[in-house]
Write a structure and sequence with these properties.
Blueprint (H helix, E strand, L loop, with lengths): L1 H78 L8 H13 L3 E6 L3 E5 L5 E13 L1 H12 L5 E10 L9 E12 L3
Antiparallel strand pairs: 1-3, 2-3, 3-5, 4-5
Length: 187
């Protein structure tokens, strides 16, 4: 009888031991599963954040590129205003265009007057001018197109065309132009 009681006791102890081990194993598995899910969620969130940061980095890079283009454009715009005390390059450009198109030119530039101050503090002045040109109508229109494409702010406010013959104004004609040249003041 002792053997049977010992055997049953041994089986009960062994069963309890296995149940405890099974419970601990199940607990560890549940704990690890929860932990793995948290890690997986964290990894997914981190990957989403990385993609977001990459897009943000691309956006910042694009904004820097566009800012450089804007900065270059701003410089180009400011450079389109020659200094009021140095408009020789503008005059030379106009004379070159006239001679290129076979026109005779008489020019007169006035005194600069303050027109406005732009937000960066640059003072913009306006210089009135008048041009008298002689040549055929075709050359005169080419001259006007070329002046229009100059890298300066030039505004023509009036033009008058006179021809030697009222029936044929394609021959030698005279044109008188009045306008304004916009310049900047030295600081």
């Amino acid at each position: 009888m002792l053997n049977r009681k010992v055997l049953i006791s041994y089986i009960v102890k062994l069963s309890i031991f296995f149940l405890i081990l099974l419970s601990i194993s199940i607990g560890i598995i549940v704990f690890l599963r929860i932990r793995i899910e948290k890690i997986q969620t964290t990894l997914q969130e981190n990957q989403r954040l990385i993609r977001s940061l990459e897009r943000r980095g691309e956006t910042i890079s694009e904004l820097r590129k566009q800012f450089e283009e804007i900065k270059t454009t701003d410089t180009t715009i400011i450079d389109a205003f020659p200094y009021s005390d140095d408009i020789l390059s503008v005059i030379n450009s106009i004379e070159l265009i006239a001679s290129t198109h076979g026109l005779q030119i008489v020019k007169q530039f006035g005194t600069p007057t303050l027109f406005m101050t732009i937000p960066d503090g640059t003072k913009i002045s306006v210089i009135p001018f008048s041009l008298s040109l002689q040549g055929n109508v075709n050359s005169l229109t080419k001259f006007l197109s070329a002046v229009e494409s100059l890298p300066y702010f030039v505004s023509i406010s009036s033009a008058s065309l006179q021809s030697q013959s009222t029936s044929d104004w394609n021959n030698i004609s005279s044109i008188s132009l009045s306008g304004s040249l916009y310049t900047r003041e030295r600081e």
